[in-house]
Amino acid sequence: MAKVVKFGGSSLADAKQFKKVAKIIEADKHRRYVIPSAPGKRFGADVKVTDMLYACYDAILAGRDAEVEFTPVAERFNGIIKDLGTSLNLTSEYERIIENFRKKSGRDYAASRGEYLNGLILADFIGYEFVDAAKAIHFRPDGTFDADLTDASLSMILESFRRAVIPGFYGAKPDGVIKTFSRGGSDFTGSIVAKAAKASLYENWTDVSGFLVADPRIVKNPEVIKTITYRELRELSYMGAGVLHEDAIFPVREAKIPINIKNTNNPEAPGTMIIPEADFSDKDPAKVITGIAGKKNFSVIHIEKDETNNEIGFLRRILTLFETEGVSFEHIPTGIDTMSIVVGSDVFEKHPRLTELIEKVAKPGHMDIEHNLALIAVVGRGMKERRGTATRIFAALSHANINIRIIDQGSSELNVIVGVGEEDFENAVRAIYDMFMLAE
Taking the complete model, does pTM exceed 0.90, yes or no? Predict the structure, then answer.
């Protein structure tokens, strides 16, 4: 069975990294379809090639000399080719790109050329066929992704090539205009290719050895998550956990293809395996939770009204108002006569009359707004099998002298969400991590 492998920008930043990638691909004959990103930073103060291309395009539009502005981009790619010791010459490609920049081909086209050129270099270096994503990844005329057409087109193309490099991040509309994905573009391309190839595994290679239980900027040396389900991943990604954008999992989740997050700089590390589903028996019995993630900048609207449980349509009127005003909400914990609506703090800047409108449609007995709230999600399929998980969360926060403002638990018992003051956010994450990961 074929494996699809995607390599991020840090994995293909220079020739040294290219050689690591080549060894990884050659080490497993089943790694047949490769999705490269554009070259990332080589060091802290470096500039990503995508940012260089944006700047170059804008400079050419402003009337500056095209060849001069494109020179740093060409030098970056030529440096990789030279250090790899290949005879590949991309001069004609550079000339075509410069000409298209002059024709105002668009910022999406400009950004996509990093993946395109890197794909050409990688395909040449490892001896794979090159498939331009513009011919395989399809967008509708309105710019939305056409999943069905792409799956059919890609499946047919991949049947023709036993081994191929398909650049990530972009595709094309029916008129040939290049369109890029908004976020996590190369991750999404890898997922699309894995589905079309009916892959046995989608390997996503980056510069970390998998998902971590908590943010390493908050918790020192957090453990790596060995196995996580798609549902757990979505919960954690939504609450700010990085590595893989949540949208990138949908094509492979639908096809029930597992994802392995791996480290290009430490290929022997097992990384994190993302799987469609798992029983509790698949979880380390010593661990109850899978991960902890959170975000700041929330506010909560507290609404009180006597006998709301007997007032038919009370919640509907409020939700209809939110829909009409285009306001999204995060959570709605409720009591018999109370309701709390958690929203992003920027809502009140965009909708300054929101509270006035709530007063009008709901006529609450009392309403107030609490700002500067942070939400923390404690996620784990093992929580359903263990008693007292929520009690341990609350105890950890109590021992750290942290006041809990909001409590919300999903019906699936997959996660518990607590709201705390933003000033307590980091200490709260550390307290929960210590309770579950260090005490077990």
Answer: no
